[in-house]
Amino acid sequence: MQPQQHDAPINLEELSEILCAVAIRAGNFVSLDVLATMSPLQRVMHAVKMANDALSIDPVVAKVLSETQAAPVLKIEFMKRRNAQ
User: Fold this and answer.
1) Cα 30 to the chain's mean position, in Å?
2) Above pLDDT 90, what percent of the chain?
């Protein structure tokens, strides 16, 4: 089965599933519990940090985040939450 190609950035729901998988793959289960205690802006910042850490360690994660164009979605969500505060 070939990986799905994305012509545009994925939606936030799909990205959330990918970031959960990244946390599990990295053995960072605690981060999912920690998210519940954070503000919306802190959640996005935590997700960016977690994904960035995984990018440098795991080539599979790097490929998935690159192919799904996750960075633009994270940037949009960060800006929306920052402006809402």
Assistant:
1) 15
2) 0
Provide the Cα torsion 43, 45, 50, 16; round to 10°.
50
Determine the Cα–Cα distance for residues 66 and 58; give it in Å rounded to an integer.
12
- Listed by start position, the domains of the chain span 12-84
Paired tokens of 25: 């793959």
The per-residue pLDDT for 5 is 56
> Is 0.90 surpassed by the pTM of this model?
no
With vertex at residue 47, the alpha carbon angle to CA 68 and CA 16, rounded to the nearest 5 degrees, is: 50
Question: Residues near 3 by Cβ (< 8 Å), separated by ≥ 6?
Answer: 67
In the 8-state DSSP scheme, what is residue 11?
P
